[in-house]
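Notes, Module 5: Reading structure tokens.

Key idea: the token line is not a picture. It is a compressed description, and you learn to read it the same way you learned to read a sequence, by spotting repeated patterns. We will look at two proteins. The first is printed below with its tokens.
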Amino acid sequence: GLSQYSSDPRTEWDLGTYTTRDQVLEAVRNLRYKGGNTFTGLALTHVLEQNLKPDAGARLEAEKLVILLTDGKSQDDANLAAQTLKNMGIDIFAIGVKNADEAELKQVASEPLELTVYNVLDFPLLSNLVGRLTRVLCTRIKEKSNKENAGSTVKDIPTNMGPQLSPTDLKISAVTSKSMHLTWSPPLRPPKKYRIVYYPSRGGSPKEVILDGAVSSLRLSNLTSHTEYLVSVFPIYDTAVGDGLRGVTSTLPLSSPRSLRVSELSHNSIRLSWEAAQGATQYLVLCSAAPDGAED
């Protein structure tokens, strides 16, 4: 599967789209380059939410590997998103080209870094990595598979990632200019934890909250006013992630003062009064002389 990203990630094809090597190579040849910014954190979140789901071809029993290819420094928090994937047992390999930040590559990648971090000066040099990277990836898959087969709890998790492992009925209420309240119905099998991801739909760094699996509500605060937010709720199990719930809503605009009144005029002063704006902690009053000929 492959996703391409700038300020907004885009899935080019899912894990289950092609079934042969030639089909994948043909898809790569037909790939259209996507220019723009470098929001790596948003891209990694997209991979988790969209590309590593059963609907996209992710098999519960299969090892999960993410290969990040980037030619720049991330403009959002890539480390937080990467840590979430790694905490779920997903291996990340980081490959930098040209202007990539090697320190960031090492933060994002899984251990051991000598096998998972690569950096080359230009795109043609990537061909030199193919043989070694292929061997490393195949070895990593075999090692992890052998460990799990020796004493795994994967068998305890059903392969059906449907309603039994997925919450339902996301409701967003009590929306203000700075906050909103989320509630949902838990799945039949309670998860170990919930991961809630939220960010402005027009771009911005994703933020996340981790909750205990026994909790099924959350108040999001410190939001930006008059902004549309995308919200996702994911149930996390020991060896799997259930299908997420998604919602979208907009925070309210900040309230304004109303009914401005002028009184107690003198030769050098006036008194102003108005109806308070809800939630305001201060007011800024600007005053200037009207231009010549304008109404006083």
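Here is the second protein, with the sequence above and the tokens below, as before.
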Amino acid sequence: EEVTESDDEDNLSSVLHQRAKMPWRACGKYLSAAGILLLPLLLLSQLLKHTVMVAIDYCLALWTEHAISIKIEPEMKNCSQCMEFDHSPYSKVFSVLCCLGIVLCLVTSIAVEWTGLKVTKKLHSSLLNKIILAPMRFFETTPLGSILNRFSADCNTIDQHIPATLECLSRSTLLCVSALAVISYVTPMFLIALVPLAIMCYFIQKYFRVASRDLQQLDDSTQLPLLSHFSETVEGLTTIRAFRYEAKFRQKLLEYTDSNNIASLFLTAANRWLEEYIGACVVLIAAVTSITSCLYNKITSGLVGLGLTYALMVSNYLNWMVRNLADMEIQLGAVKRINGLLKTEAENYEGLL
């Protein structure tokens, strides 16, 4: 009995270790199927787009700061004449940056969809060739439903869900990095607290990712019986009324609803906990350092407002980054399952006419 319990504990620990690991091989398989040209184009377009977005916000901060300083300086010097501020240079630069940002957003969207289409076509054609050339013992040992799921559900996940999740993950990651870079540029003192904050975020997301994935699967698994029971109740409403089973079906519907609501409540609470906890730490540190620097006249009020604005958005960016990472981990399971079928050895036709 002691040996059996120790084996169960070892199996449980190995399962938990596998759940905490990111399927990097499946991610590498997906990115390698995109090709040599599409992947650099996708990364370059994302970097340029977020650089332009930061430049737009920085231009607005300088524009506001200079416009306010032109109006305040004559009042402080008790001058009767008020200088007029020329908005045309800033408006031209702002318009050019906005147009460039729109073009880069379009290029990024096209690159993401093009990458997803190419990966799907390549994996589907490779899987089809492997299945057609597979030996007969493969079909005797593999259920037909499993093969159909690879061609239907998994290919649908790779075709529709992974490109969108990949785009959201890269966007939220770059937004978070750009926000931290802006805060560090505005207040260099923030860099002192950035290292322990990054370590804390790493360990928090490591445990949150496992819990979020399990809660998402629990939410999906409890939603299906609810929808099935509701559709069956509507279709058989006349039979239910004939046998006077309204109370029984109503009670069953309430039980399914409660189960789904509990899973949704825990998932929402976990997401809010991640957002509020990390975001509060970032906002507190950024606010203290920004106000301290502003009191000693080291930075302008416009840059302080820019840093605090990005600090308030870091919590949302971190939340979406971790949630998209958990979704990507679930969706990469489709690539992993298809990659397992791609290792099937083909039938040996040597010596046959």
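Summary for the second protein:
- The mean pLDDT is 79.
- The domain at 33-342 is CATH 1.20.1560.10 (ABC transporter transmembrane region fold).
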